[in-house]
User: Fold these one by one.
Assistant:
Number 1:
Amino acid sequence: MKLLSIVVSAYNEEAGVNEFYRVTKEYGEKLREKGWNYEFIFVNDGSMDRTGEILSELADTDKEHIKLISFSRNFGHEAAMIAGLDYASGDGLVFMDADLQHPPEYLLPITEAFDEGYQVISMVRTSNETAGIIKKITSGGFYWLINKLSDIYLEPNASDFFAITSTVQKVLMKNYREKVRFLRGYVQNVGFRKTTIEYKAAPRIAGKSHYSIKKLFTFAMNTIMCFSNVPLKLGIFAGLSSGFLGFILLIYTLCTHDGAPSGYATIVVLLCFMFAVLFIVIGIIGEYIAVLFEELKDRPLYIIEDKKNF
Ligand code: UDP
Ligand code: MG
């Protein structure tokens, strides 16, 4: 029998995690007929509610199928997925949310794709009725920008629902451990035989989303810096174009000069414009230095307080 590791990160999911386990386990059991055993790797990402206790109880009752990692505090969804990646022992790994937005009925097609020899399986959302219009527009714009700026391609509707084999797991474990990172993006760019499966995102079973607009913005900025150096080159473009502008103005002034001092407005406007460009460029460099600083400090991606059934 092959083993499928189902990696689930949970943060304040007390209302839905039991139901998630019950439903997903049913599909897990069905996999046995196809020659796949299953294990859950639950990562409790420093939940403040009863999620930890609920998961711990589940781990006690189903020792055979549940492994539990508890973080010392909230480290974020990405860190939780990395911890799952580090501790999963399956031949195949699938990453899922604990809110049943990633329908477990797709576990079967995922294992079939593994059996066909695919190493990376991206689950692509066909529709997300839960996302509002603002989220749709901003996310569309983000993917357009990142694909323009970087030399890799990120699938616009790919989600944190994906599956990889243990071979890919090893690659991701060894490298790709930047402090500022985007696991979903790396998964799509390690190569290997890859396929996509479409799925329809379901609404959350309970609780509410943890991603605010502010968090998403930070996330978008980080991703751009993970995958692209183009913003750093903005300074060169800005310098060149303002030099060009200055040159034109010089010619213009020399040609039209009639002795009278003039052009106060032009000077003020130009000054504001130049300073704006300068500060933006400095700001961008600052952002990259912040990323370098994070790397340099080399703090752990996550801290584990407790492990169960390992
Ligand atoms: N999550 C986590 N740590 C966090 C925030 C979220 O582990 O700091 C988990 C959360 O419990 C869920 C998954 O990440 O299983 C996706 O989060 P959420 O459903 O809030 O995001 P959305 O589906 O709205 O994008
Ligand atoms: Mg969700």
Note: The chain has two domains: 2-212, 230-297.
Number 2:
Amino acid sequence: MTRSVLTVCDLSSSEIGQVLDRAREAKQDRRRRGTELEGLTALLIFQKPSLRTRVSFELAVSNLGGRPLYLSPPEVGLGERETPEDVGGVAGRYCDLIICRTFDQSNLERLAASSGVPVVNALSDWEHPCQALADVLTIREHGGTTGRTLTYVGDGNNVARSLAIAAAGEGMDVRISSPSGYELDSASVTEASNRAAASGGSVSLVSDPDVAVSRADVVYTDTWTSMGQELEAKQRLEDFTGYQVDVDLVGKASPDASVMHCLPAHRGEEISDDVLDGPRSVVLDQAENRLHAQQALLAWLFA
Ligand code: CP
């Protein structure tokens, strides 16, 4: 059966657990190579720039015996040069897997429907599921997930959505702190709450960041202005005043709290330099774990 991962909801909480168990094992023996993609080709269609996602997916495919082929933003023309259906139909004749970074979530759905091969979301305007897998793996490594508190401070965006749903399914108490007008949508809060109800966790929206961060075990933030929102940057800087993850805010969290950011960071906006570079920061572990989590996901999909 062709199985795509277009959102984190395409994986049950139990399946996320299986993938992350596999990632932890593979990480312990970094030289070990898999054969799950032996003889297979993965097409990476990227409509936006990337460091972490591109490199980690190319390595993951190679490490599993497959061949990655990268198409850069100007080469793709997804929805401009050709419809997603035409791209998907052609790609499905050449390749065994599509890994796509795009603006519009519907492009992923159209590629999945037309290609006949698994499609993996490498970031869309709606979700960043592979980032969430790496994030939960990182939290597991830094004190664990179940019964601990994760506070996300900032925009209720794609990263927040995937993270909240995945972490709630691991039994975490998830608090999301956003200014008015930037909260996570109610359907995603409901999905995360349903997963939390099954795992013993909880989900709450707490607008005051000082209250939200109080005694938290993990403090997470992401850029206030994502790719494609550049015209809103000035307004967003005003609207997010008071939501910077700085030394004062982190001082309200648990004394051994981890600080997370998916990167790239807008230093001095959503996070201060001294916190991003400070002793609580686990952002490089997060970045490294993109490789281990995605390699485990691909191995699991093709096992
Ligand atoms: N976190 C993340 O997706 O990074 P890139 O944009 O560099 O891929």
Note: Residues 50-53, 123, 131, 262-264 surround phosphoric acid mono(formamide)ester (CB under 6 Å).
